Amino acid sequence: MRSNDQKKILFKIILLLVFLWLVKAFIRTATPKHRGPFPDFIYEERDTFGRVITRDVRGWVIDEYLCDGKITDDFVLAHLNNPPNTPIYVYPMEIDEYVSSDIIMTGQYESQNVKTMIQYMKRFPNAVFLDLGAFVGSYSIAIAALGYKVVAVECLKSSVKRLYASMKEAGVSDRMSIIHNAISDIHERAVVETDPGNLGLTYVVQGKSEGTETVDVIVLDDFLEIFQFKQAIIKMDVHQYEDMVLNGANKFFKQVNVEAVLMEFVHHRDDTFDNDGKFIINFMESHGFEPDVPANIKQDYKKWTKSEILFKRSKPFS
Fold it and tell me: Is 249 helix (H, G, I), strand (E, B) or coil?
């Protein structure tokens, strides 16, 4: 009798083990392969392609909520004209009167700056295009559609969802990664705010952790934990935080051969934020860059009239 009971118990254990093995096998085939013990964690660069990832207190993880792929009524499908007919999801014009409106009506936004970044990617085709403050992706989607590797960073959830939808619609998931974080020079939780009617003016309020929408703030050096960047082209538009991004990027600029940085500079010309303009100039010069401005005003950044300044490498990377 005891022997029969033991056989029954053993048989049930075997059935349970087989069942668990089948479940594990199903999960392994139904989800992308990861190099690590936890399926939602990111361990290597190749785990990031075609996904929305974020860095929080746990480390780098997949943001499943933001890559659910749902297209809602307020997703407007437009098309970029460079490259021609590239699909991109934007906002309705009534809630985003500048960026989305321009893309819907003309198929472009900041077209000359986009062309400049494309020219640099053609010169350095093995570089990654790092879009800091990607918004809906007028730079990222265009450059990924041309076949280049792209990492787009955005803090506003609704914009991240559009980036993900555009990435899928444009068929560039094999070479594009999306990061849902804000970037500065410290790690903290911050509030995300936007300008009514102008969602392109999205910004974070550091030192404030309670609000309608919050986000984890990281530093550019954190990217080196999972990305194996060798060469990069950077576009940086983070609404007055450009100096702070650089302050958290010393290791990045020492390890990665950055060939050019297109940076929003209009808020830093007057050194409004504790000599932030001077800090940016000194940082870029110390890492071998010079501004692409007329020679007679190169040393007087308060006279730079362009909203965005291109910093070009002037000394060899070492």
Answer: coil
